[in-house]
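TA notes, week 10

Several of you asked for a full example with nothing omitted. So below is the full record: structure tokens for the whole chain, then the designed sequence directly under it. When grading your own attempts, check the secondary structure regions first.
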């Protein structure tokens, strides 16, 4: 479980975003840097990865290595596909995630009640040539951590559409209370950069994420679908749900 939580922190996305006002697809590329740290007897070296988000009206795709997460409000589905194993699992977006889990995983799933607080720091910063305002976040769950996010409204986003999609995802996961979800969805813009710090058995884990590309593009064919050669798995696992949740945190 600790290894899983650690992996999720490294993959952390904070905010799934960019619903373009002109109806086109937007590609968002994030650079994720993790400082070196010591955990469970192993010295982990620093590493830098990239993560891609394709966002269209009412749907989004997150690409992380071989993993693809499709969120489609129009079709009322959420799909988690793995290119390495050539498998996928599908769930109803309008139903709680636990209802799409296998019976064994449903019984073994612990409570993940998470609370979040948000406050403006009064600081400013420029990211991708855009003026951003700083906000401090505190997330309390199995592994508590703090973050500073830099938010800009100077982006091609329909914030109402974005919040509507995110609200469906929050409800699907069911991990935040109503007040926490409202606080996170109330950020006045799009998060262009984020700095996370978490305590890990006396060690400090630092993860920095920053948007390095944000542009309207034509998506590749089949982006919002799963290849026909992939085998369907019977249901979500606990690890699947944790991975999907890492997009939010």
């Amino acid at each position: 479980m600790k290894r899983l939580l650690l992996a999720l922190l490294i993959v952390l996305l904070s905010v799934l975003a960019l619903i373009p006002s002109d109806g086109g697809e937007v590609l968002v590329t994030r650079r994720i840097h993790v400082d070196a740290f010591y955990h469970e007897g192993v010295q982990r070296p620093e590493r830098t990865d990239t993560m891609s988000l394709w966002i269209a009206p009412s749907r989004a795709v997150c690409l992380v290595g071989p993993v693809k997460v499709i969120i489609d409000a129009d079709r009322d589905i959420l799909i988690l596909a793995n290119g390495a194993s050539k498998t996928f699992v599908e769930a109803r977006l309008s139903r709680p995630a636990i209802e799409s889990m296998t019976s064994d995983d449903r019984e073994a799933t612990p409570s993940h009640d998470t609370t979040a607080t948000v406050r403006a720091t009064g600081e400013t910063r420029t990211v991708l040539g855009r003026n951003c305002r700083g906000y401090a976040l505190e997330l309390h769950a199995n592994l508590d951590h703090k973050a500073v996010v830099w938010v800009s409204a100077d982006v091609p986003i329909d914030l109402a559409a974005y919040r509507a999609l995110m609200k469906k995802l929050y409800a699907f996961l069911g991990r935040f209370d109503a007040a926490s979800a409202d606080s996170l969805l109330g950020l006045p813009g799009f998060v262009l950069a984020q700095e996370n710090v978490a305590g890990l058995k006396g060690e400090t884990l630092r993860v920095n994420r920053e948007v390095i590309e944000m542009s309207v593009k034509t998506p590749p064919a089949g982006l919002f679908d799963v290849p026909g050669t992939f085998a369907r798995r019977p249901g979500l696992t606990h690890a699947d749900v944790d991975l999907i949740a890492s997009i939010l945190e």
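The domain at 2-245 is CATH 2.50.20.10 (outer membrane lipoprotein receptor (LolB), chain A). Use that as a sanity check on your answer.
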